[in-house]
Amino acid sequence: MRRVASVPRTHWRERVEEAGLSWHSGENPYWNESAFYEFTAKEVDVLEQATRELAGMALRAAQYVIDNKLYSIMGIPEHAAELIESSWKTEPPSLYGRFDLAYDGVSPPKVLEYNADTPTSLLEAAVVQWYWLEDAFRGRDQFNSIHERLIAR
Question: What kind and span of H or E run contains 13?
């Protein structure tokens, strides 16, 4: 894995807003085009395996909370329990998710945060990122299967 310095696109703010991401700047900018990370195929495989394992762990943890009715210790109000249980029984697991990982290319990846079924994840990880890649590095590809998986689902 290597960090590569990159020149932000001209009018990048307008471009990400056109794609639907209006919250991108501020004291700590959310969208940053001054660098990107390039991975080897082996590193992508490591990350893919880790995300599969983490997704399974998240589903098992949710099942444990539901089975043991641990809502209060999770800060979930009691009145939400019935809706959570109904949703869990009738709907498939998360349609998509994004793990924010700490990874140095040597040590195993460590999870920092998990965002599942959040609308901004689709914008930033699929749409805005793809448009950036097309504008800045036409003809290159990325490891991201969100679009294909949404179609398959």
Answer: helix 12-18
Cα(1)–Cα(52) distance, rounded to whole angstroms? Answer: 20
User: Range of 50's domain?
Assistant: 41-96
52: Cα separation from own chain's centroid: 13
Asked whether residue 16 is assigned to any structural domain, the reply reads: yes
Q: Is 3 helix (H, G, I), strand (E, B) or coil?
A: strand
Domain assignment present for residue 149? The answer is yes
Which three-class secondary structure state does DSSP give residue 37? strand
- Mean pLDDT of the 29-58 span: 91
Please state the pTM of the whole predicted model: 0.78
Task: Looking at the structure, tell me whether residues 52 and 90 fall in a common domain.
Answer: yes
The segment with the largest mean pLDDT, out of 30-39, 94-103, 115-124, is 30-39
Q: Is the pLDDT of residue 95 over 70?
A: no
DSSP 23: -
Q: State how far the Cα of 116 lies from the Cα of 121, in Å rounded to an integer.
A: 8
What's the average model confidence in pLDDT over 117-146?
81
DSSP 63: H
The token duo for 76 is 């979930």
* Residue listed under structure tokens 């460590």: 110
Query: 67 with 74: CB under 8 angstroms?
Result: no
